[in-house]
Amino acid sequence: MKVVDILSSRRLQLGVLSIAAVFLVYMWITNQPDNNPALLPPISDIVASFFTNLNSGNLLSALGASLFRITMGFFIGTTLALIVGCMVGWYKTIEYLVDPLIEAVRPIPPLAYIPIIIIWFGIDEFSRVLIITIACFMVCVVNVIAGMKNVPQVYVDAASTMGASRFQVFRTVAIPAATPFIITGYRIALGAAWTTLVASELLAAQNGLGFLLQEGRRYFATDQVMMVIVIIGGCAFIMDRIFRRIQAYLMQWSEARE
Amino acid sequence: MPEIKVNDLTHTFGKGSPNALTVLEGIDLTFETGSFNTIIGTSGCGKSTLLKMMAGLFDPSDGEMTLDGTVIKGTDRRRGMVFQQDAVFPWMTVAKNISYGPRLRGASKSDQREIETKWAKMVGLTGFEDRWPRELSGGMRKRVDIGRVYANDPDVLLMDEPFGALDAQTKERMQSDLLETWSTTKKTVVFVTHDIEEAIFLSDNIIVLSSRPGRVHHIEKVTLPRPRSNEMRLTEEFLEIKRRLWGMLDH
After folding, report:
1. CA atoms of B66 and A169, how far apart (whole Å)
2. How far apart are CA A15 and CA B187, in angstroms?
3. pLDDT tens, position by position, A50-107
4. What is the DSSP letter of B158?
5. Closest CA relative to residue B68, chosen from B27, B31, B26, B29
């Protein structure tokens, strides 16, 4: 798509319009004479806070710490989910063995593990990555299992009658047929990673974006809190966009591709 | 030498349970090497079940089937199957679908290319090799299915109402093209359909199954000359067979 096409797309225009509307309403409210800037800081303050934290190096180090945790937790959690999900979804024996366990543990919000993890491992990097890993694993594994169980039987039969072994069917049919589910699992896991990251940093961290939020609250620096919220939103948005690109590439065969 | 034999086969779904349903009973059949055989019967007569058992997708509750004297157990590449549903892998291009079987057995890149080119041509898909299945019509996807099974070089071709979902004109084209492919390879075909005209046009032998439970009711030898042409569909001999078979199927 050419730049001109993108700019003239109705979808983009309306998207920009809605964001601009929120922005303008916010500006209008903060410009009212009786607005309390300590509760609703004007945009100029938020931008100033951004540059202050950027120049002091606080923002980049917080961003670095958070992105590291997200990446580690997301990568380990989804990889485990892929392995476990494939086994559970493909082998009946393993399913009967492991599925009740997953179903029992699944409704527990990952944040509920924070106290026990702190007791066991202390407040350190490992604990925070572990919580994100658990969160990513739990949401992703369910999708991988669903994907494996929804492989159309006719594809499995077609491959078998052409002489494919059970493992060949798994590799050449089940995995690609389950890809749409697996990718969805990864995308949901990314969202879960952000949620648990901020929560774990709010509770127990000396750095990271969640810590910056907490610090802003403690010193009543609402502009800093607002700034970090926008940064988190931006990062999560960019990551999701990258993911959609990967999805579009992997799903070029699909009717339902984006 | 008779290639596929079905010996006193009976199949009961849920055998032993109060809801047990016997779909096939005492089936004895022999399919000669290189012949084109069609099984017809009303829906629910167990014809698809019989075909799936011949493919090895599941075992009959009683009796057995043999291919060249060896008992059929489980699936293998000697018995290829074309399904009623669309079984083309949507995540592979047309070419990759066609060379799927050889690739399973580690065929070299150049062998794969050769097979892809040859079978794309045989089923009339030259020029579409790099397309995704979603870009093709239902008829063309069926061609991919058939090309893929042929490219896998089985001894027997099992076809379960492969043209059932196609419009009348596409169906006639596909039937003629299938006969052409069949005549160049002379593989044994067992074809299931509920379309009497399709059965007569394609077959050497038509097996009529009665329904619930399915039993062999009649075997019709079709002696129309080959190659068959669409004009034959209107000949007296063709219509005579059609009338006879029509009377046998319970409507």
Report:
1. 25
2. 60
3. 999 999 999 999 999 999 999 999 999 999 999 999 999 998 899 999 999 999 998 9
4. E
5. B31
Residues in chain B closer than 8 A to A168 (CB atoms):
104
B57 touches chain A (CB under 8 A): yes
Mutate to test the interface with B, among A161, A172, A249 (most CBs of B within 10 A): A161
Q: How many residues are present in chain B? A: 251
Residue listed under structure tokens 């127990």: A204
Pick from B91, B156, B157 the residue to mutate for testing the A interface (most A CBs within 10 Å).
B91
ipTM of predicted complex? 0.91
Amino acid code (one letter) for A125: E
Query: Among candidates B91, B96, B155, B151, which has minimal Cα distance to B129?
Result: B96
Strand, helix or coil for residue A5: helix
Separation CA B132–CA A251 (nearest Å)? 11
* CA-to-CA separations, B7 to A106, B2, B27, B54, in angstroms, rounded: 51, 13, 7, 12
- The CATH class, in words, for A42-250 is mainly alpha
Domain that residue B241 falls in: 1-78+188-251
User: Is residue B54 in some structural domain?
Assistant: yes
Torsion of CA A7, A8, A10, A14, to 10 degrees: 50
B149 has a chain A CB within 8 A of its CB? yes
The CATH number linked to B239 is 3.40.50.300
Judging contacts by C-beta atoms under 8 Å, the chain B residues touching residue A173 are: 89
* Rounded to 5°, angle at Cα B165 from B229 and B171: 10
